[in-house]
Every structure is written in structure tokens, then in C-alpha cells.
Amino acid sequence: MTEFTTQVPRHPSRDAPLRLRLLQTTDVHGHLLPFDYYTNRSDRPWGLARLATLIRHARSEPGADNCLLFDNGDFLQGTPLTDLTAHQNHGAQTPHPVIAAMNQIGYDAGTLGNHEFNFGLDWLMETLAEARFPLTCCNVLTRRGDIPTEDTTLLPPYLLLSRQMRDETGQVHTLRVGILGLVPPQIMTWDHARLSSRIEARDMVESARAWLPALRSAGVDIVVVLAHTGIDPGPDRPMMENAARALARLPGIDALLAGHSHKSFPGPEHRDIDRVDTVCGTLHDTPCLMAGFRGDHLGQLDLTLTRDTAGSWRVTSHQATLLPSAAAAPCPALCTLLETAHAQTLTLTGRDIGQTDAPLHSYLALLRNDPSLQLVNDAQRHTLASALAGGPYADLPLLSSTAPFKTGGRGGPAHFTDIAAGPLRLCNVADLYGFPNTLCGLLVTGADLRDWLERAAICYHQIIPGLSNQPLLDPAVPGHDFDVIDGLSYTIDVSQPARYTMSGAQSHPDATRIQDLRYAGHPLRDDAFFIIATNSYRAHGGGPFAPLAAQGLIYSDNRPVRDLLADHIAMRRHITPDARPTWRFAPLPGTTVTVETGPGLRAHPEDITAMGATDLGLTHAGFLRLSLPLSTEQPTLAHLEP
Asked: What is the distance between the alpha carbons of residues 108 and 100, in angstroms, rounded to a whole number?
């Protein structure tokens, strides 16, 4: 056999382009294996194990020698594997299964998401110490300076990655890639109890504007920003949660990798936003990627770099691609690595803690008094009542507030709780309460409660009386913003506009969706005092809600509400799901609305009948579409003593 070898020129033109491939994962939320611990299904079309196969392929493609892999945050929280098994009180293994998986895949760098802070700062830093890849975040600080570049940051404010890379002629260049990481400053609200007095967070745009020149002056060739933030149509405002567009306008960014909102970019979800190209994948002409969530897509951004006459590299073209993970087989090596942690999770979540006489599901949680919400509210109220017994607040009326956490939306038509009658296991409790929030007790007034409910009612569109099949639910508002306050009774008039926006700003100050608000059958007085049990996220102002804990916090628990719920069920062993008549829609004669819910509701035809709803079939996305009359007379709401 004769071998033929092509000689590569040793000194090609300095203008030869260099191809650089950036790969992105974001918002994986602990979905390592294609397994659903709530339903025990092992065929889920997502997860890091599937992404690992796509990553291996993307790295091995011809012309993809120059490849960097980044994660955009929210990787440590989100499934029983991460929220239960990976903690010391449940037999945690070292290293953390997510970090072990990312180490094996071989990430080049990453940044933090807001959910990385859910389990406290000490736990976070101990866990990140296991990573064999660097992490950066420039707007979370342990000491504030006069300007951002004088801050002492929790993690390095930026990274300098020096890599040997070949241009199209084969010449090797040392490319210095600068990495800047950012996280929403709302971490100080969402995890206030764990972070207050320990760290601070600056505005993302303010921080990036200050650090970018410092990064450029360090001699980098290109800058990649890992921003755990979504795409907000604007206008810009200080301390924005979703600031990708504002960041993209800053000079000195060559590529922006976004996340947080669980959406995908490029793609049609962000059409009709100024200076957003959903085909080419640019925000204000800056190449951008946002690769969905829970490992359903791998982001791939192919950059063409060309040296100018001064010898500096410039991005002259790009291609942004989202690669779906559904068709990729899980990586066998990663599955093997995770076998022990997976088995521990199955053992833990399979623990029997009680029995339910009837199904518990969230298909109608935004439409009716829901038994699953009642169960959580009962657990919160009873826990708080025991804690306050014999104290100065024991004689005040005690209420409880919670929201549904799985109501479809971006999670898709299977993103609902659906627990059959029979044994209740720890996995069912984690399904009912999927976040590691802790319990808070607040001293509030009647006026606070009225305002609270107006904020909760923004999940509905304004409905015009007398028209048919108007969409009821606003898809921009997540279901977990719909708080139900148990212990009150009230009516929601959706013919009124929403008083508040998603940011908590007033859009219609005079709107009153909440009507006939009563306690113990009597109209609620604005100056009356109450105690309310709620979670730490809501108490400190999570979502469009006021941070009432700032003035009214009287109790806080360090255990997750999920654990309190498990104890509540275990103490009773046998529960009969029911829901007190807390709220209803104001009747609108001759009016029907449409809602999209999970097709699993068809297994509960009695619930469809009880709502007076009509099955309109499945949508293209797989949701069940219902028509619901708002003219139906509903039972009079009466206060029931807890």
C-alpha cells in the first residue's frame, strides 16, 4: 500500500479564516438521564445523557477541531436526583452527580444560574469545588466596590481561555477567548433567606459594561458572554431579569449565550421583537444562542473568524443551530457513571409514606378549587400553627397560600402532576412540590391580601362578555404565579383587565379582578390582621408579588416545604383529597373560553363533566383543548374553618 500525504503550507496568508464552534447547554435542571422520576418513565426525549451524544458528534464533525463547550447555568437543581439524592441527609455521593457528568463530558467553562443558590452558599461552593472546569460570574459579589471592577466577586469575574486552534489552511494559532458570566440579580429576592448579608448582586448590564473593557484590555481575541438571562422585548430598565437584548447592544461582545427563560433561540418564540433576527440568530447584530431547557436541545454556534490588517480576529460570519436531543441515544458511558446515584434516587423516591383515596392532578389547577393545592396549604398551615402555638400571634386568623407548579406551558403537555389513587410515595410529594422553598409566616393586613390576589390573577386574559371561545390563560404568565389563599373566599372577574404586569408594575391601577373577598363569611376589612403561611420565594417578592417579608416576617423554617408536606402525609397515613370552596370565576352569561391542558385529563372524565367543559381535541403541540362556559352558576363560596 502506498500512502499519499498532503503537505500543509507552513506560512499561509494571515487572512486565512479560522472556524470556531461554540456548544451550549443551559437550564438542564438536573435532567441527566432520560428518566422521569415522577412517572418512572425511562424514554423521556431530553437529558444530559442525550446531549452528551450530540456533543461528541458535534466535536468530531469534519472542520470542528476548534470547539468549546459551555454551560449557561441552572444545572444543579430540578429533579429528585439533584434535589434529594445529592444532599448529605439523603446519602449524597461525592462528587455531585451533575458535576461528575459534566466533568466526564469535558466542559470548557460555565456560569451560574439562579437555581444554583437554592441550597445555600456553603453547599454551592463545596459542590462547585468538585468541578474540573472553571466557572465565572461577574455580578455576584462578596464585597461591593465603588464601581463593578472594584468589587470582590464570589467567582472569578471573567475567564481567559487560551487554546491552540487551526485555521482553514492548518496553521496553528493561540486563540485567547474571554468569558464573562452573569446571573439575574433577583437571586437576592428568590433566595433572600439563604443569601442575605452574605452576598450582593449588581445589575447585569451595569456589570458587563464595566468588565468588558477590562476583559478586552487583558488581550483576548474574542469575548463570549454566558448570560443566564432571557430575551425581554423591553423597554430596558435597571435590574432587569431578562436582559439579553440590552447586553447584546454593549460593544465588545462577539457571541452571547443566553438562557433562564426556558425558551429557544433562534426560533419563532421571539418574533416581532425589535432588532431580533429569529432566523439568523442575532440580537442587535450580535450572534446569540438559547438552547431550551432540561437538555432538550444542544446549542451550536459556528463562528468564522478573520484577522484584520492589524492582526486582530473578528467574527465575519456565523451560523446558529439548535440540535434537538430527542433522536439522540443516551451516552452509555454517562449512563454507567450515574448508575449508583440513579439507583439511590429510585430507592429514596419509592419510599411509601401514605395513601390517597382519590387521584391528585394539576390539569385544572388554574380553573377550579384544586385538591392538590389544598393538600399543600393544609400542610403549611398546620406546620405554622404548631410553630406559633402559645406565642403572641397564636390567636390571629391563620391562612395559607400556595400555587400549582406543573401546569403545562413551556414544559409541554406532559408537564402536569398526575398521581393515581393508592400509595403515596416520596416521588409523589416531590411532584406536588418541586422546588426547595422553605416555609415562612407573615403578618399581613386585609389590604395586603387583596393586593396579593390581584397579583395572582394576572394569569388570565381579559375576557369580553358574550363572546365564544376566547383564550383564557395568558401563556406569558407561568402557572406558579397563581397563588390560592386558603381560608378566604373570593371571586375572580376576568372581564376586568389585570391590574399588574409580570414585573409587578401596575398597568391598570383601578382594575379589580378580585371581588366579594371575605373571611369567615364577612367582607374582608383592609385594616384586619392575619398570619399567612407561604413559601420563602413568595414571601420575599418572587414573581410579580410584593416582598411582604421585609416588614412582616414573623417565622421562617429551614426545612423545605416538600419535607413538611411529606411529614404531613406520613402523620395522617390516609388522606381523602378535597378542596374547600375558596374561589370561583364571576359568572359571565353567554361567554365561553378555551384552555389548553394535558391530554391526561381524559382519564378523569368526571372532572371534565363537573367543569361543564367540552373536549375540542388536541392541538398540534399535543395539549388538550377545552371549551369552558363562564356563565355556569357555581356554588356560593362559604368560609370553612381549617
From this structure: 14
In angstroms, the CA 220 to CA 488 distance is 59
Averaged pLDDT for residues 199-213? 98
Residues 55 and 160 in one domain: yes
**Cα(64)–Cα(542) distance, integer angstroms:** 42
- pTM equals 0.92
Residues 367 and 611 sit within 8 Å (Cβ to Cβ): yes
Please tell me the distance from the alpha carbon of residue 401 to that of residue 588, in angstroms, as a whole number.
27
Domain range enclosing 272:
23-344
pLDDT digits (tens, 9 = 90+) for 269-304: 888 898 999 999 999 999 999 999 999 999 999 999
As for how many domains the chain has, the answer is 2
303 contacts: CB under 8 Å, gap ≥ 6: 19, 20, 21, 22, 222, 254, 255, 287, 315, 317, 318
- Mean pLDDT, range 516-534, rounded to an integer: 97
Which CATH number fits the domain that encloses residue 261?
3.60.21.10
CA Rg, the chain, in Å?
26
What lies within 8 Å, CB to CB, of 165 at 6+ separation is 18, 20, 65, 66, 172, 173, 174, 175
Helix axes 371-388, 561-572, angle to 10 degrees: 90
Instruction: Looking at the structure, tell me whether residues 360 and 315 fall in a common domain.
Output: no
pLDDT of 384 strictly over 90: yes
